């Protein structure tokens, strides 16, 4: 287990929020006047899909399916056709319809009990975290491969292959987003992963964290000096 340095977490939070104030992305689902349904649909669509792709598609989806009942009443083929632009449409359509039927039964109300929440179709760890963060106003991490990459590069690598079950990474993520502006910390990390701390070609030489980043300091020799 790698010891988590609170001073380094504080530094990371301050720097990532400063960066976000200048370079953060502006998406429809980050506005404050969305319904619980609209927030959940955004997170469902964002799984394994680039945010920019979802941004182009999201308004038309919400217009066609404005609540759970519309999705529950739609045919599988209709949902698949609408989801085709964002990929994985067959799998997503079936799971989304199952989720919609369950939410109709629940009258659109989400349980606060974490175990019950994750038992709802299509929830799982990531969307349950998103529900806690955006709807219940709790500091939960939007943990996916992108957030994992940023945190591991700066703080140190996890031990287990599956990010959902690695105790170090999970504890680290919760500590990093434990902040009065938890939503912005989450969004900042995801935006930073997309534009700077990229998977294949990270922009390490111009990174705000390079002086204290474990990944950069351990691999500094492989990054050419920028002219």
From TrEMBL:
Domain HhH-GPD: 45-195
Cofactor(s) in the UniProt record: [4Fe-4S] cluster
DNA-binding found in the keyword field: no
Annotated InterPro entries: DNA_glycosylase, Endonuclease3_FeS-loop_motif, Endouclease-III_FeS-bd_BS, HhH-GPD_domain, HhH_base_excis_C, MIG/MutY
SMART domains for this protein: ENDO3c, FES
Superkingdom: Bacteria
A Pfam family reported for this protein in Swiss-Prot or TrEMBL: HhH-GPD
Keywords on record: DNA damage, DNA repair, Glycosidase, Hydrolase, Iron, Iron-sulfur, Metal-binding
The family this protein is said to belong to: Belongs to the Nth/MutY family.
Role of this protein: Adenine glycosylase active on G-A mispairs. MutY also corrects error-prone DNA synthesis past GO lesions which are due to the oxidatively damaged form of guanine: 7,8-dihydro-8-oxoguanine (8-oxo-dGTP).
Name the record gives this protein: HhH-GPD domain-containing protein
């Amino acid at each position: 287990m790698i010891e988590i340095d609170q001073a380094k977490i504080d530094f990371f939070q301050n720097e990532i929020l400063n960066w976000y104030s200048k370079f953060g992305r502006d998406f429809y689902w980050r506005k404050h006047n969305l319904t619980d349904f609209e927030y959940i649909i955004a997170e469902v669509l964002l799984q394994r899909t680039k945010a920019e792709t979802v941004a182009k598609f999201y308004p038309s989806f919400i217009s066609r399916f404005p609540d759970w009942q519309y999705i529950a009443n739609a045919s599988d083929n209709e949902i698949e056709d609408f989801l085709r632009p964002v990929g994985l449409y067959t799998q997503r359509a079936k799971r989304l319809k199952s989720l919609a039927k369950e939410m109709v039964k629940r009258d659109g109300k989400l349980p606060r009990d974490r175990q019950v929440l994750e038992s709802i179709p299509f929830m799982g760890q990531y969307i349950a975290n998103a529900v806690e963060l955006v709807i219940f106003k709790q500091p939960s991490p939007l943990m996916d491969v992108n957030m994992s990459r940023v945190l591991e590069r700066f703080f140190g690598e996890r031990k287990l292959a599956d990010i959902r079950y690695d105790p170090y990474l999970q504890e680290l993520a919760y500590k990093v987003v434990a902040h009065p502006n938890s939503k912005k910390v989450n969004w900042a990390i995801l935006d930073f992963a997309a534009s700077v701390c990229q998977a294949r070609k990270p922009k390490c030489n111009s990174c705000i964290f390079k002086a204290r980043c474990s990944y950069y300091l351990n691999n500094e020799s492989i990054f050419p000096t920028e002219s």
